[in-house]
Design brief:
- The complex is a heterodimer of chains A (314) and B (276).
- Chain A has 314 residues and is an alpha/beta fold.
- Chain A contains 13 helices and 14 strands.
- Chain B has one domain (4-275): Rossmann fold, CATH 3.40.50.970.
- Helices cover 43% and strands 12% of the residues of chain B.
- Chain B contains 9 helices and 7 strands; from the N terminus they run ααβααβαβββααβαβα.
- Classes of the chains: A alpha/beta (314), B alpha/beta (276).
């Protein structure tokens, strides 16, 4: 299996986009080496603005650039974009619906050694609660690249979430990206696994494991957390015995809650959530933490089997 | 330089705008009357003398931009924009009402002439700088006038913005601090001291002027001087009186966000009528 960085997909796409469109600008907040926008700064220095350690100011400045017709990509860590600069993102960007793209790297527990202060497991919840905000969580390098291009073409605010680590390259999710559209990766009518971001590889591994146990799991990759792909979810709720969601994020407010709320109102179905269970993380290697905090295929399998047990009992 | 006749016309216009502010806040029974009255002369000087703008063409690309970073003083900008013809004066009757384009704090997508949405303090300064940076990248001629509150300057973001404007040499930015020494809970120097305010902006790389924010000659002279200089953003610290023009509201912190009673409203309008 090949591994690549999702944040590199973002940075590579920015160069590509900016060469074709003079309105594209990149802002960073003194983390360009980590977000990889340093590559952009090297190639297109006049279109790159390092705002220093000023995430709040950066977001409002980006809003001003967008008001005057530019398409700024304001870049920082997920923690700073969503919690430190929540006010600016809400009031300068989301409320007036200005055309700012927020590139947030180091999302989720796989941020690793920096510990809980830098492992943002709340950003999807915060961002999807803002009206006018579109939330994209691509699953690998190539999808990160495609999502960044799609965000540039989208009119209005977009929050793009990437990880820090090297994540499996998943051929299954390549070939296109449409905001608001899920990708059906594997058919199956016993239950559905709906994943976002890097959890796609665990979701597919879980489906393989379930198959060995005679369970046909449908795998749906949902790189757009907002707006949700309702058609795909409704079909999953109707045609299977329940849904397991998987996200590298708190089970509060993220994909799992979005899916649960959607099916509760359209076609009630069992939903079980794999994610970080309302705790802060700690320092460790990404692979250790993903296991320690229950974000593995085995955790998805466990929840899937519980759904099947419950569904039978009912 | 500005002649006596121009100054008298601006003074008369300011009285009209103050009446309009009082009417708006009284009718809505809600809104920030004290700061709006205090900032009136600055906004009047800009819209009726200093700004290049065309109410018939609110999106004219070369227009100067005005950003009310102290967004709670929306009544003053709404009164001025309506009077200039950006939207019907009767719209002012809908201020803070459901369905109105005149939100409690300025919302650019809805209101013609409003350049940036503001409200939570500190954000409008940065947004104005982003707009000015855009113009600089394109080599456009327009200027960016930003009005901040003095309480607002306590926000850390104001100083982030101060560094940013200086770094990018945004010399088309001419900002004002509406220095009335009052904020919601009391005197700024008791709540969180700002002085020496001009020296702080100087230290952050801005050119500063300190003026009487009710003296049209001083306002105009400072802006004209700022326009002539290059290489740095400008901050004009304009000393003002919160509640200016209505005797019982002047320098009274209680009039930050309280609408007048019917009796107070009558008295205020009467005082302003005498001023004309």
């Amino acid at each position: 299996m090949q591994f690549k960085r999702t944040r590199q997909g973002y940075a590579d796409a920015l160069i590509e986009l900016a060469r074709a469109n003079p309105r594209i600008l990149v802002l960073d907040s003194d983390v360009a080496k980590a977000t990889k926008t340093c590559d952009f700064a090297e190639v297109l220095p006049d279109r790159f603005f390092n705002c220093g350690v000023q995430e709040g100011n950066m977001m409002s400045v980006a809003a001003g650039l967008a008001i005057e017709g530019f398409i700024p990509f304001a870049t920082t860590f997920a923690m700073f974009a969503s919690t430190r600069a929540a006010d600016q993102v809400r009031n300068s960007i989301a409320y007036p619906k200005v055309n700012v793209k927020i590139g947030a790297t180091h999302g989720g527990i796989s941020t690793g050694g920096d510990g809980a202060s830098h492992q943002c497991n709340e950003d999807i919840a915060i961002m999807r609660s803002f009206p006018n905000m579109t939330v994209l969580v691509p699953g690998d390098y190539e999808e990160a690249r495609l999502a960044t291009c799609a965000a540039a073409a989208w009119k209005g605010p977009v929050y793009l979430r990437f990880g820090r680590g090297q994540y499996p390259v998943m051929e299954e999710i390549h070939g296109g990206f449409e905001i608001g559209k899920a990708k059906l990766l594997r058919p199956g009518n016993d239950l559905a696994i709906v994943s976002t971001g890097i959890m796609v590889s665990e979701a597919l591994a879980a489906a393989t494991e379930l198959e060995k146990q005679g369970v046909a799991a449908r795998v749906i990759h949902m790189p757009t957390v907002k707006p949700l792909d309702g058609d795909v979810l409704l079909a999953a709720a109707r045609e299977t015995r329940g849904i397991v969601t998987a996200e590298e994020h708190s089970i509060i407010g993220g994909l799992g809650e979005a899916v649960a709320a959607f099916v509760a109102q359209t076609h009630p179905a069992f939903v079980r959530r794999v994610g970080v269970h309302d705790v802060f993380g700690e320092s460790g290697r990404a692979d250790e933490l993903l296991t320690l905090y229950g974000l593995r295929a085995a955790n998805i399998v466990e929840q899937a089997l519980q759904i099947l047990d419950t569904a039978v009992a009912v | 330089m500005v002649d006596d006749k121009t100054v008298r016309a601006l003074e008369a216009k300011a009285v009209e705008i103050r009446r309009s502010i009082l009417n708006m806040v009284y009718r809505a029974n809600s809104g920030h009357v004290g700061g709006s009255l205090g900032a009136t002369d600055l906004v009047v000087a800009l819209y009726y003398h200093l700004l290049r703008h065309d109410p018939r063409n609110p999106k004219w690309p070369d227009r100067d931009r005005f950003i009310l970073s102290k967004g709670h003083c929306s009544p003053v900008i709404y009164a001025v924009l309506a009077d200039c013809g950006y939207f019907p004066v009767t719209d002012l009757e809908t201020f803070r009402r459901p369905g109105s384009h005149l939100q409690g704090h300025p919302f650019a997508p809805k209101t013609p002439g409003i350049e940036a949405s503001t409200g939570t303090l500190g954000l409008g300064i940065s947004t104005g700088l982003g707009m000015a940076l855009a113009a600089k990248l394109r080599g456009e001629p327009q200027r960016y006038y930003i009005l901040c509150g003095d309480g607002e300057i306590q926000e850390g973001q104001a100083w982030e913005a101060a560094m940013f404007a200086s770094k990018y040499r945004l010399d088309k930015v001419i900002a004002f601090v509406d220095r009335n020494y009052l904020q919601t809970d009391g005197n700024t120097e008791d709540i969180m001291p700002l002085e020496p305010l001009a020296a702080k902006w100087e230290a952050f790389g801005w050119r500063t002027f300190e003026i009487d924010g009710h003296d049209f000659r001083q306002i105009i002279a400072a802006v004209e001087c700022a326009r002539a200089l290059q290489g740095k953003p400008t901050m004009i610290v304009a000393r003002t009186v919160k509640g200016r023009g209505v005797s019982f509201m002047e320098n009274e912190v209680a009039w930050h966000g309280t609408p007048p009673s019917p009796e107070q409203y009558e008295r205020a309008i009467e005082e302003l009528s005498r001023a004309i």
